[in-house]
Protein backbone atom coordinates (compact mmCIF):
# COMPACT_ATOMS: atom_id res chain seq x y z
CA UNK A 1 0.00 0.00 0.00
CA UNK A 2 2.96 2.33 0.43
CA UNK A 3 2.97 3.15 -3.26
CA UNK A 4 -0.72 4.05 -3.39
CA UNK A 5 -0.08 7.77 -3.73
CA UNK A 6 3.09 7.70 -5.82
CA UNK A 7 1.48 7.76 -9.27
CA UNK A 8 1.00 10.90 -11.33
CA UNK A 9 -2.35 12.61 -11.91
CA UNK A 10 -2.89 10.68 -15.12
CA UNK A 11 -2.48 7.44 -13.21
CA UNK A 12 -4.97 8.68 -10.63
CA UNK A 13 -7.53 9.52 -13.31
CA UNK A 14 -7.13 6.09 -14.85
CA UNK A 15 -7.51 4.44 -11.45
CA UNK A 16 -10.62 6.52 -10.66
CA UNK A 17 -12.18 5.31 -13.90
CA UNK A 18 -11.24 1.75 -13.03
CA UNK A 19 -12.91 2.07 -9.61
CA UNK A 20 -16.21 3.16 -11.11
CA UNK A 21 -16.12 0.54 -13.84
CA UNK A 22 -15.19 -2.25 -11.49
CA UNK A 23 -17.93 -1.30 -9.05
CA UNK A 24 -20.56 -1.17 -11.77
CA UNK A 25 -19.64 -4.44 -13.44
CA UNK A 26 -18.41 -6.37 -10.38
CA UNK A 27 -15.29 -7.28 -12.33
CA UNK A 28 -11.98 -6.39 -10.75
CA UNK A 29 -8.96 -5.15 -12.63
CA UNK A 30 -5.65 -6.75 -11.74
CA UNK A 31 -4.04 -3.46 -10.71
CA UNK A 32 -7.02 -2.45 -8.53
CA UNK A 33 -6.97 -5.80 -6.78
CA UNK A 34 -3.22 -5.50 -6.36
CA UNK A 35 -3.65 -2.01 -4.93
CA UNK A 36 -6.25 -3.00 -2.37
CA UNK A 37 -5.76 -6.75 -2.02
CA UNK A 38 -2.08 -6.83 -1.19
CA UNK A 39 -2.65 -7.24 2.53
CA UNK A 40 -4.92 -9.83 4.11
CA UNK A 41 -7.40 -8.30 6.52
CA UNK A 42 -8.66 -11.58 7.92
CA UNK A 43 -8.63 -12.70 11.51
CA UNK A 44 -5.53 -14.76 10.84
CA UNK A 45 -3.48 -11.73 9.77
CA UNK A 46 -4.24 -8.89 12.22
CA UNK A 47 -3.39 -5.35 11.25
CA UNK A 48 -1.04 -3.44 13.50
CA UNK A 49 -1.62 0.25 14.08
CA UNK A 50 1.32 2.59 13.83
CA UNK A 51 3.17 2.81 17.11
CA UNK A 52 2.66 6.14 18.78
CA UNK A 53 2.77 7.33 22.37
CA UNK A 54 -0.78 7.24 23.63
CA UNK A 55 -2.28 10.48 24.86
CA UNK A 56 -4.11 10.14 28.16
CA UNK A 57 -5.56 13.65 28.23
CA UNK A 58 -9.26 14.01 28.85
CA UNK A 59 -11.45 15.40 26.06
CA UNK A 60 -13.32 17.63 28.52
CA UNK A 61 -13.41 21.25 27.38
CA UNK A 62 -13.83 24.41 29.43
CA UNK A 63 -17.37 25.72 29.24
CA UNK A 64 -18.67 22.59 27.48
CA UNK A 65 -21.09 20.40 29.40
CA UNK A 66 -19.92 16.84 30.06
CA UNK A 67 -22.52 14.34 28.83
CA UNK A 68 -22.40 10.76 30.07
CA UNK A 69 -23.74 7.31 29.32
CA UNK A 70 -25.19 6.12 32.63
CA UNK A 71 -26.42 2.70 31.48
CA UNK A 72 -27.32 0.74 28.36
CA UNK A 73 -29.41 -2.41 27.93
CA UNK A 74 -30.94 -4.44 25.14
CA UNK A 75 -33.28 -7.34 24.71
CA UNK A 76 -31.65 -10.49 23.37
CA UNK A 77 -31.23 -10.09 19.60
CA UNK A 78 -33.07 -13.00 17.95
CA UNK A 79 -33.27 -14.30 14.41
CA UNK A 80 -36.50 -13.06 12.86
CA UNK A 81 -39.23 -15.67 12.83
CA UNK A 82 -38.16 -17.26 16.12
CA UNK A 83 -39.31 -16.60 19.70
CA UNK A 84 -40.48 -13.01 19.15
CA UNK A 85 -42.56 -13.88 16.10
CA UNK A 86 -45.99 -13.08 17.61
CA UNK A 87 -45.02 -9.74 19.20
CA UNK A 88 -45.09 -6.17 17.90
CA UNK A 89 -42.17 -3.71 17.76
CA UNK A 90 -43.42 -1.71 20.73
CA UNK A 91 -43.41 -4.90 22.85
CA UNK A 92 -39.64 -5.18 22.37
CA UNK A 93 -39.08 -1.45 22.85
CA UNK A 94 -41.18 -1.54 26.02
CA UNK A 95 -39.15 -4.50 27.32
CA UNK A 96 -35.88 -2.62 26.73
CA UNK A 97 -37.21 0.47 28.48
CA UNK A 98 -38.45 -1.58 31.43
CA UNK A 99 -35.05 -3.28 31.59
CA UNK A 100 -33.38 0.13 31.70
CA UNK A 101 -35.72 1.26 34.50
CA UNK A 102 -35.05 -1.92 36.47
CA UNK A 103 -31.29 -1.69 36.10
CA UNK A 104 -30.94 2.02 36.88
CA UNK A 105 -33.79 2.56 39.30
CA UNK A 106 -34.20 5.99 37.73
CA UNK A 107 -37.48 7.60 38.84
CA UNK A 108 -39.86 7.52 35.89
CA UNK A 109 -40.56 11.23 36.21
CA UNK A 110 -36.85 12.15 36.34
CA UNK A 111 -36.45 11.59 32.59
CA UNK A 112 -37.02 14.72 30.51
CA UNK A 113 -37.37 13.21 27.04
CA UNK A 114 -37.44 9.85 25.20
CA UNK A 115 -36.19 9.27 21.64
CA UNK A 116 -36.34 5.98 19.73
CA UNK A 117 -34.96 4.95 16.35
CA UNK A 118 -36.64 2.51 13.97
CA UNK A 119 -36.53 1.80 10.23
CA UNK A 120 -39.57 -0.19 9.15
CA UNK A 121 -42.50 1.54 10.81
CA UNK A 122 -45.39 -0.42 12.24
CA UNK A 123 -48.34 1.68 11.08
CA UNK A 124 -50.35 1.10 14.28
CA UNK A 125 -47.57 2.61 16.42
CA UNK A 126 -46.06 5.18 14.08
CA UNK A 127 -44.45 6.98 17.04
CA UNK A 128 -43.14 3.83 18.71
CA UNK A 129 -41.14 5.88 21.22
CA UNK A 130 -44.33 7.29 22.72
CA UNK A 131 -46.26 4.00 22.76
CA UNK A 132 -43.37 2.02 24.26
CA UNK A 133 -42.63 4.69 26.87
CA UNK A 134 -46.19 4.75 28.13
CA UNK A 135 -46.32 0.95 28.06
CA UNK A 136 -43.15 0.80 30.15
CA UNK A 137 -44.72 3.02 32.77
CA UNK A 138 -43.01 6.32 32.07
CA UNK A 139 -44.99 9.43 32.93
CA UNK A 140 -47.32 10.53 30.17
CA UNK A 141 -45.91 14.02 30.74
CA UNK A 142 -42.59 13.03 29.12
CA UNK A 143 -42.38 13.97 25.41
CA UNK A 144 -41.21 11.21 23.07
CA UNK A 145 -40.43 11.05 19.37
CA UNK A 146 -39.20 8.51 16.84
CA UNK A 147 -36.37 9.02 14.35
CA UNK A 148 -35.29 7.04 11.31
CA UNK A 149 -31.88 7.03 9.65
CA UNK A 150 -31.58 3.45 8.43
CA UNK A 151 -28.96 1.42 10.31
CA UNK A 152 -27.84 4.45 12.36
CA UNK A 153 -31.32 5.30 13.66
CA UNK A 154 -30.47 4.73 17.33
CA UNK A 155 -27.18 6.58 16.79
CA UNK A 156 -29.32 9.52 15.74
CA UNK A 157 -31.55 9.01 18.78
CA UNK A 158 -28.49 9.15 21.06
CA UNK A 159 -26.91 12.20 19.45
CA UNK A 160 -30.28 13.98 19.47
CA UNK A 161 -30.29 13.30 23.20
CA UNK A 162 -26.78 14.72 23.49
CA UNK A 163 -27.94 17.82 21.62
CA UNK A 164 -30.91 18.37 23.93
CA UNK A 165 -28.67 18.12 26.99
CA UNK A 166 -25.92 20.28 25.49
CA UNK A 167 -28.51 22.95 24.66
CA UNK A 168 -29.75 23.00 28.24
CA UNK A 169 -33.19 21.73 27.26
CA UNK A 170 -32.87 18.51 29.24
CA UNK A 171 -30.75 16.88 31.93
CA UNK A 172 -31.75 13.24 31.43
CA UNK A 173 -32.82 11.62 28.16
CA UNK A 174 -33.56 7.99 27.31
CA UNK A 175 -32.60 6.99 23.76
CA UNK A 176 -32.97 3.65 22.05
CA UNK A 177 -34.00 1.74 18.99
CA UNK A 178 -36.10 -1.18 17.87
CA UNK A 179 -36.56 -3.32 14.78
CA UNK A 180 -39.00 -6.16 14.22
CA UNK A 181 -38.44 -8.05 11.00
CA UNK A 182 -40.72 -10.99 11.90
CA UNK A 183 -43.73 -8.92 10.84
CA UNK A 184 -43.43 -6.08 8.34
CA UNK A 185 -46.18 -3.95 6.78
CA UNK A 186 -47.39 -5.41 3.47
CA UNK A 187 -49.61 -3.13 1.38
CA UNK A 188 -52.15 -3.64 -1.34
CA UNK A 189 -51.02 -2.51 -4.79
CA UNK A 190 -51.34 1.18 -5.64
CA UNK A 191 -54.29 0.53 -7.97
CA UNK A 192 -56.05 -1.54 -5.33
CA UNK A 193 -55.52 1.15 -2.69
CA UNK A 194 -56.98 3.81 -5.00
CA UNK A 195 -60.00 1.61 -5.70
CA UNK A 196 -60.59 0.90 -2.01
CA UNK A 197 -60.32 4.58 -1.08
CA UNK A 198 -62.77 5.49 -3.84
CA UNK A 199 -65.07 2.69 -2.69
CA UNK A 200 -65.08 4.18 0.79
CA UNK A 201 -66.28 7.49 -0.65
CA UNK A 202 -68.85 6.04 -3.09
CA UNK A 203 -72.39 7.14 -2.26
CA UNK A 204 -74.62 5.00 -4.45
CA UNK A 205 -74.86 1.24 -4.94
CA UNK A 206 -74.16 1.74 -8.65
CA UNK A 207 -70.90 3.58 -7.95
CA UNK A 208 -69.81 0.85 -5.54
CA UNK A 209 -70.62 -1.98 -7.97
CA UNK A 210 -68.78 -0.16 -10.76
CA UNK A 211 -65.66 0.17 -8.62
CA UNK A 212 -65.81 -3.46 -7.49
CA UNK A 213 -66.21 -4.51 -11.12
CA UNK A 214 -63.02 -2.63 -12.05
CA UNK A 215 -60.83 -4.81 -9.78
CA UNK A 216 -58.55 -7.16 -11.70
CA UNK A 217 -56.41 -10.05 -10.48
CA UNK A 218 -53.28 -7.96 -11.00
CA UNK A 219 -54.63 -5.43 -8.49
CA UNK A 220 -54.46 -8.07 -5.76
CA UNK A 221 -50.68 -8.48 -5.92
CA UNK A 222 -49.26 -7.17 -2.62
CA UNK A 223 -46.40 -4.70 -2.26
CA UNK A 224 -43.63 -5.94 0.02
CA UNK A 225 -41.21 -3.58 1.79
CA UNK A 226 -38.16 -3.23 -0.44
CA UNK A 227 -34.79 -4.09 1.07
CA UNK A 228 -33.29 -1.85 -1.59
CA UNK A 229 -32.14 1.70 -2.14
CA UNK A 230 -35.02 3.83 -3.45
CA UNK A 231 -32.62 5.98 -5.48
CA UNK A 232 -30.82 3.07 -7.18
CA UNK A 233 -33.28 0.14 -6.80
CA UNK A 234 -30.30 -1.98 -5.77
CA UNK A 235 -30.29 -4.24 -2.71
CA UNK A 236 -27.65 -3.55 -0.08
CA UNK A 237 -26.29 -7.08 -0.51
CA UNK A 238 -25.72 -6.43 -4.20
CA UNK A 239 -23.92 -3.20 -3.32
CA UNK A 240 -21.77 -5.06 -0.79
CA UNK A 241 -20.80 -7.58 -3.45
CA UNK A 242 -19.75 -4.86 -5.87
CA UNK A 243 -17.85 -3.02 -3.16
CA UNK A 244 -15.96 -6.17 -2.17
CA UNK A 245 -15.09 -6.76 -5.83
CA UNK A 246 -13.90 -3.18 -6.31
CA UNK A 247 -11.55 -3.42 -3.34
CA UNK A 248 -10.27 -6.87 -4.19
CA UNK A 249 -11.77 -8.50 -1.08
CA UNK A 250 -11.75 -12.24 -1.56
CA UNK A 251 -14.43 -14.72 -0.55
CA UNK A 252 -11.91 -16.33 1.82
CA UNK A 253 -11.23 -13.02 3.60
CA UNK A 254 -14.95 -12.46 4.07
CA UNK A 255 -15.58 -15.97 5.37
CA UNK A 256 -12.60 -15.69 7.74
CA UNK A 257 -13.93 -12.43 9.14
CA UNK A 258 -17.40 -13.93 9.63
CA UNK A 259 -15.91 -16.94 11.44
CA UNK A 260 -13.94 -14.50 13.62
CA UNK A 261 -17.10 -12.52 14.48
CA UNK A 262 -19.11 -15.60 15.49
CA UNK A 263 -16.19 -17.13 17.43
CA UNK A 264 -15.56 -13.92 19.40
CA UNK A 265 -19.29 -13.45 20.07
CA UNK A 266 -19.59 -17.02 21.36
CA UNK A 267 -16.60 -16.51 23.65
CA UNK A 268 -18.01 -13.20 24.95
CA UNK A 269 -21.44 -14.74 25.53
CA UNK A 270 -20.03 -17.72 27.43
CA UNK A 271 -17.75 -15.45 29.47
CA UNK A 272 -20.64 -13.25 30.59
CA UNK A 273 -19.25 -10.17 28.87
CA UNK A 274 -22.51 -9.26 27.11
CA UNK A 275 -23.90 -7.71 30.27
CA UNK A 276 -26.12 -5.28 28.39
CA UNK A 277 -28.46 -8.17 27.53
CA UNK A 278 -31.52 -8.34 29.78
CA UNK A 279 -33.81 -11.35 30.24
CA UNK A 280 -37.24 -10.96 28.70
CA UNK A 281 -40.31 -13.09 29.42
CA UNK A 282 -41.99 -13.43 26.05
CA UNK A 283 -45.77 -13.65 26.59
CA UNK A 284 -46.92 -17.23 26.08
CA UNK A 285 -43.35 -18.41 25.64
CA UNK A 286 -40.17 -18.94 27.64
CA UNK A 287 -37.86 -16.37 29.17
CA UNK A 288 -35.25 -15.32 26.59
CA UNK A 289 -31.87 -14.37 28.01
CA UNK A 290 -29.32 -14.56 25.19
CA UNK A 291 -28.82 -13.84 21.49
CA UNK A 292 -29.66 -16.84 19.29
CA UNK A 293 -27.86 -16.01 16.05
CA UNK A 294 -24.33 -16.79 17.25
CA UNK A 295 -23.27 -19.83 15.25
CA UNK A 296 -19.53 -20.46 14.95
CA UNK A 297 -18.72 -22.41 11.82
CA UNK A 298 -15.69 -23.76 10.00
CA UNK A 299 -14.14 -22.38 6.84
CA UNK A 300 -15.07 -25.65 5.13
CA UNK A 301 -18.73 -25.19 5.99
CA UNK A 302 -18.65 -21.53 4.97
CA UNK A 303 -17.15 -22.40 1.59
CA UNK A 304 -20.14 -24.61 0.73
CA UNK A 305 -22.57 -21.69 0.63
CA UNK A 306 -23.50 -20.18 -2.71
CA UNK A 307 -23.47 -16.42 -3.45
CA UNK A 308 -26.66 -14.76 -2.21
CA UNK A 309 -26.84 -11.71 -4.48
CA UNK A 310 -24.59 -11.75 -7.56
CA UNK A 311 -24.80 -15.24 -9.00
CA UNK A 312 -22.79 -17.28 -9.69
CA UNK A 313 -19.60 -15.25 -9.17
CA UNK A 314 -20.40 -13.06 -6.16
CA UNK A 315 -18.64 -13.43 -2.82
CA UNK A 316 -21.36 -12.27 -0.40
CA UNK A 317 -23.26 -15.19 1.14
CA UNK A 318 -25.89 -15.60 3.85
CA UNK A 319 -23.15 -16.59 6.29
CA UNK A 320 -20.86 -13.58 5.77
CA UNK A 321 -23.78 -11.11 5.97
CA UNK A 322 -25.75 -9.88 8.96
CA UNK A 323 -29.10 -11.62 9.32
CA UNK A 324 -32.66 -10.31 9.70
CA UNK A 325 -33.02 -9.68 13.43
CA UNK A 326 -35.64 -8.69 16.00
CA UNK A 327 -34.52 -6.67 19.01
CA UNK A 328 -34.55 -3.41 20.95
CA UNK A 329 -32.07 -1.33 22.94
CA UNK A 330 -32.18 1.59 25.36
CA UNK A 331 -29.64 3.89 27.02
CA UNK A 332 -29.84 6.51 29.76
CA UNK A 333 -27.91 9.67 28.87
CA UNK A 334 -27.43 12.53 31.34
CA UNK A 335 -25.39 15.60 32.01
CA UNK A 336 -22.55 14.54 34.30
CA UNK A 337 -23.75 17.01 36.92
CA UNK A 338 -27.24 15.49 37.00
CA UNK A 339 -25.94 11.92 37.05
CA UNK A 340 -23.65 12.58 40.02
CA UNK A 341 -26.36 14.50 41.86
CA UNK A 342 -28.63 11.46 41.53
CA UNK A 343 -25.92 9.15 42.83
CA UNK A 344 -25.00 7.42 39.56
CA UNK A 345 -21.54 6.26 38.52
CA UNK A 346 -21.50 6.91 34.75
CA UNK A 347 -20.06 4.33 32.38
CA UNK A 348 -18.49 6.72 29.86
CA UNK A 349 -18.39 10.23 28.43
CA UNK A 350 -20.05 10.72 25.03
CA UNK A 351 -17.69 13.05 23.20
CA UNK A 352 -17.38 14.16 19.58
CA UNK A 353 -19.53 12.71 16.81
CA UNK A 354 -20.08 13.27 13.09
CA UNK A 355 -22.47 12.20 10.36
CA UNK A 356 -21.37 11.80 6.75
CA UNK A 357 -23.05 11.13 3.44
CA UNK A 358 -21.78 9.84 0.11
CA UNK A 359 -22.96 8.62 -3.28
CA UNK A 360 -25.51 5.87 -2.52
CA UNK A 361 -24.63 3.90 -5.64
CA UNK A 362 -20.89 3.31 -5.63
CA UNK A 363 -20.04 4.28 -2.03
CA UNK A 364 -23.13 3.11 -0.17
CA UNK A 365 -21.31 1.28 2.63
CA UNK A 366 -18.18 3.40 3.13
CA UNK A 367 -19.54 5.45 6.04
CA UNK A 368 -16.76 4.39 8.47
CA UNK A 369 -14.04 5.40 6.02
CA UNK A 370 -15.42 8.92 5.69
CA UNK A 371 -16.57 9.45 9.28
CA UNK A 372 -13.53 8.12 11.16
CA UNK A 373 -10.94 10.76 10.16
CA UNK A 374 -13.48 13.55 10.65
CA UNK A 375 -14.40 12.54 14.18
CA UNK A 376 -10.77 11.97 15.15
CA UNK A 377 -9.88 15.47 13.94
CA UNK A 378 -12.74 16.96 15.95
CA UNK A 379 -11.47 15.17 19.04
CA UNK A 380 -7.79 15.93 18.37
CA UNK A 381 -6.91 12.22 18.34
CA UNK A 382 -5.23 9.79 15.96
CA UNK A 383 -6.04 6.15 15.23
CA UNK A 384 -3.32 4.99 17.60
CA UNK A 385 -4.99 6.85 20.48
CA UNK A 386 -8.07 4.63 20.19
CA UNK A 387 -8.13 1.63 22.53
CA UNK A 388 -11.47 0.11 21.53
CA UNK A 389 -13.06 -0.05 18.06
CA UNK A 390 -16.67 -1.09 17.48
CA UNK A 391 -17.69 -0.94 13.82
CA UNK A 392 -21.08 -2.07 12.56
CA UNK A 393 -20.70 -5.27 10.55
CA UNK A 394 -23.36 -5.13 7.83
CA UNK A 395 -21.36 -7.54 5.68
CA UNK A 396 -17.89 -9.00 6.08
CA UNK A 397 -17.08 -7.60 2.63
CA UNK A 398 -18.20 -4.14 3.72
CA UNK A 399 -15.88 -4.22 6.74
CA UNK A 400 -12.96 -5.46 4.64
CA UNK A 401 -13.56 -2.81 1.96
CA UNK A 402 -13.64 -0.04 4.58
CA UNK A 403 -10.41 -1.25 6.18
CA UNK A 404 -8.68 -1.30 2.80
CA UNK A 405 -10.01 2.15 1.89
CA UNK A 406 -8.83 3.51 5.26
CA UNK A 407 -5.37 2.10 4.56
CA UNK A 408 -5.03 3.77 1.15
CA UNK A 409 -3.39 7.15 0.56
CA UNK A 410 -4.69 7.00 -2.99
CA UNK A 411 -8.31 6.59 -1.91
CA UNK A 412 -7.94 9.39 0.65
CA UNK A 413 -6.50 11.75 -1.96
CA UNK A 414 -8.80 10.80 -4.84
CA UNK A 415 -12.16 10.55 -3.10
CA UNK A 416 -11.86 12.26 0.27
CA UNK A 417 -9.75 15.33 -0.50
CA UNK A 418 -7.25 14.31 2.16
CA UNK A 419 -3.47 14.35 1.98
CA UNK A 420 -3.04 10.89 3.44
CA UNK A 421 -4.87 7.85 4.76
CA UNK A 422 -6.30 7.71 8.27
CA UNK A 423 -4.92 4.20 8.80
CA UNK A 424 -6.58 0.99 9.93
CA UNK A 425 -7.65 -0.22 13.35
CA UNK A 426 -5.50 -2.89 14.94
CA UNK A 427 -7.52 -6.09 14.81
CA UNK A 428 -6.59 -6.88 18.39
CA UNK A 429 -8.76 -3.88 19.36
CA UNK A 430 -11.52 -4.42 16.81
CA UNK A 431 -15.00 -5.85 17.58
CA UNK A 432 -13.55 -8.23 20.16
CA UNK A 433 -16.94 -9.33 21.51
CA UNK A 434 -18.41 -10.11 18.11
CA UNK A 435 -20.46 -7.78 15.93
CA UNK A 436 -23.59 -7.46 13.84
CA UNK A 437 -22.65 -10.51 11.74
CA UNK A 438 -22.95 -12.75 14.80
CA UNK A 439 -24.90 -10.87 17.48
CA UNK A 440 -27.54 -9.73 15.01
CA UNK A 441 -28.56 -6.42 13.51
CA UNK A 442 -32.02 -5.05 14.35
CA UNK A 443 -31.62 -2.00 12.09
CA UNK A 444 -32.91 0.62 14.52
CA UNK A 445 -31.28 -0.85 17.65
CA UNK A 446 -27.64 -1.52 16.72
CA UNK A 447 -26.21 1.93 17.46
CA UNK A 448 -26.97 1.71 21.19
CA UNK A 449 -25.41 -1.75 21.31
CA UNK A 450 -22.21 -0.39 19.77
CA UNK A 451 -21.91 2.52 22.20
CA UNK A 452 -22.72 0.43 25.27
CA UNK A 453 -20.23 -2.23 24.18
CA UNK A 454 -17.49 0.39 23.84
CA UNK A 455 -18.20 1.61 27.38
CA UNK A 456 -18.06 -1.92 28.78
CA UNK A 457 -14.91 -2.83 26.85
CA UNK A 458 -13.11 0.35 27.96
CA UNK A 459 -13.80 -0.57 31.56
CA UNK A 460 -12.87 -4.24 31.09
CA UNK A 461 -9.72 -3.56 29.07
CA UNK A 462 -8.56 -0.43 30.88
CA UNK A 463 -8.68 1.77 27.79
CA UNK A 464 -9.27 5.50 27.57
CA UNK A 465 -10.88 6.13 24.17
CA UNK A 466 -13.31 4.15 22.05
CA UNK A 467 -14.56 4.72 18.52
CA UNK A 468 -17.93 3.68 17.09
CA UNK A 469 -18.44 3.80 13.33
CA UNK A 470 -21.26 2.59 11.10
CA UNK A 471 -22.56 2.72 7.56
CA UNK A 472 -26.23 3.10 6.66
CA UNK A 473 -28.57 2.97 3.69
CA UNK A 474 -28.62 6.07 1.54
CA UNK A 475 -24.80 6.24 1.56
CA UNK A 476 -24.77 7.71 5.08
CA UNK A 477 -22.54 7.05 8.06
CA UNK A 478 -21.77 7.95 11.65
CA UNK A 479 -18.83 7.94 14.04
CA UNK A 480 -18.51 8.82 17.72
CA UNK A 481 -15.64 9.07 20.18
CA UNK A 482 -16.36 7.73 23.66
CA UNK A 483 -14.11 8.34 26.66
CA UNK A 484 -13.86 6.02 29.66
CA UNK A 485 -15.24 7.40 32.90
CA UNK A 486 -12.57 7.51 35.65
CA UNK A 487 -12.72 4.34 37.72
Key words describing this protein structure:
single chain; 10-stranded mixed β-sheet; 12 strands; 487 residues; disordered N terminus; 16 helices
Structural commentary:
With 487 residues, the protein is α+β, with helices and mostly antiparallel strands. Helices cover 36% and strands 15% of the residues. The protein has 16 helices and twelve strands. Strands 1, 2, 3, 4, 5, 8, 9, 10, 11 and 12 form a ten-stranded mixed β-sheet that branches. Helix 4 links the parallel strand 3 and strand 4 (144-147). The longest helix has 20 residues, at 251-270. It catalyses: an acyl-CoA + acetyl-CoA = a 3-oxoacyl-CoA + CoA; hexanoyl-CoA + acetyl-CoA = 3-oxooctanoyl-CoA + CoA; butanoyl-CoA + acetyl-CoA = 3-oxohexanoyl-CoA + CoA; decanoyl-CoA + acetyl-CoA = 3-oxododecanoyl-CoA + CoA. Belongs to the thiolase-like superfamily. Thiolase family. Residues 344-483 form the Thiolase C-terminal domain. Pathway: Lipid metabolism; fatty acid beta-oxidation. Its main location: endoplasmic reticulum.
Bin the strand percentage: 5-15%
Rg, Å, rounded: 23 Å
Q: What is the end-to-end distance?
A: 40 Å
Helix content: 25-40%
Order of helices and strands: HHEEHEHEHEHHHHEEHEHEHEHHHHEE
Profile the largest sheet.
10 strands, mixed
Q: Can you tell me the residue ranges where pLDDT is under 50 for at least 5 consecutive residues?
A: 1-34, 37-54
Number of strands: 12
Classify the secondary structure makeup into a structural class: alpha+beta
Mean pLDDT: 89
Global outline? globular
> DSSP helix count?
16
Domain Thiolase N-terminal: 67-337
Enzyme class: transferase
Keywords: Acetylation, Acyltransferase, Endoplasmic reticulum, Fatty acid metabolism, Lipid metabolism, Membrane, Mitochondrion, Mitochondrion inner membrane, Mitochondrion outer membrane, Transferase, Transit peptide
Pathway: Lipid metabolism; fatty acid beta-oxidation
